[in-house]
Amino acid sequence: MTPDTITVLTLCFFSFLAGFIDSIVGGGGLVQTPAILFSLPQYPIPTLLGTTKIPSAVGTLLSAVQYSRRVTIHWSLLLPMAITAFGAALTGSWTLTHVPNTFMRPLALVILITIFIYTLLKPEFGQHVERTINHRQQLIRVVLMAIVIGFYDGFFGPGTGSFLVLGLVSLLGFDFLRASAHAKWVNLATNLASLCFFVSKGMVLFAVAIPMAIANLLGSFLGVRLALLKGNGFIRVFFLCVIAATILRFAYDLLRS
């Protein structure tokens, strides 16, 4: 049965918000995923998750292109990272069909709380670019990061964009703006991997995914424009807000279960 127009329009609204949030510092899944799970409970959860991958992918692509026009992209680091993340996410999605992921939520909650406290106590964190790591070390770090976070995105998902930003800031010395620009391309690779898996299994509602994708594109466009206009200080505050919201969401889910 095709969802009614009001339901689709409601999902488009949440997809717009998700695109806006995700384009700045990641975390759009916190808005989009609960919205579709609540609005369409008659469908299997894998199908709903697969449906969200289309708006997420197109919104992330637009964000990545917009950032690339204003921020210097290190393609020699980005390409190996994106390719590795694609393979890792595909592996994570396949693993999800064989192993439950319920243990991931409390683990992610602990990690997020640590991230929030560390970022809050270090105002200088992510405010400027530090170039103290040689290219070989950077390459090793991004590949390892891509394996871990890519698998996480395919296996569980929420907060992937924020984890990518944090990893690029802490392990490579990027500022928040540059980290967000690179994270978008890697997140696009993980989204495409998961999307390929879900489409191959017939787990996508295209009648819902396409209008959501249009709304997500608009939100992504506005979010990137704001991030480029406001710069690192704004992105840092936004990052803390998204991490705090993620913590509250995970804590609520754990207490409710």
Give the SSE map:
Layout: H1 5-25, H2 29-39, H3 45-70, H4 75-96, H5 104-121, H6 135-155, H7 160-172, H8 176-200, H9 206-230, H10 232-256
Helix pairs in contact: 1-2, 1-3, 1-9, 2-3, 3-8, 3-9, 4-6, 4-8, 5-10, 6-7, 6-8, 7-8
> What characteristic shape results from the CA principal axes?
globular
* Biggest sheet overview: none
What order do the SSEs take from the amino end to the carboxyl end, as H and E? HHHHHHHHHH
Number of strands: 0
Share of helical residues: over 70%
Name the beta content range: under 5%
Q: Gap between N and C termini, in Å?
A: 30 Å
Q: What descriptive keywords fit this protein?
A:
mainly alpha; about 260 residues
Describe this structure in words.
With 257 residues, this protein is an all-alpha fold. The chain has one domain. It has helices at residues 5-25, 29-39, 45-70, 75-96, 104-121, 135-155, 160-172, 176-200, 206-230, 232-256. The longest helix has 26 residues, at 45-70. It is globular.
Task: Offer a concise description of the structure.
By secondary structure, the protein is mainly α. The chain is built from ten helices and no strands.
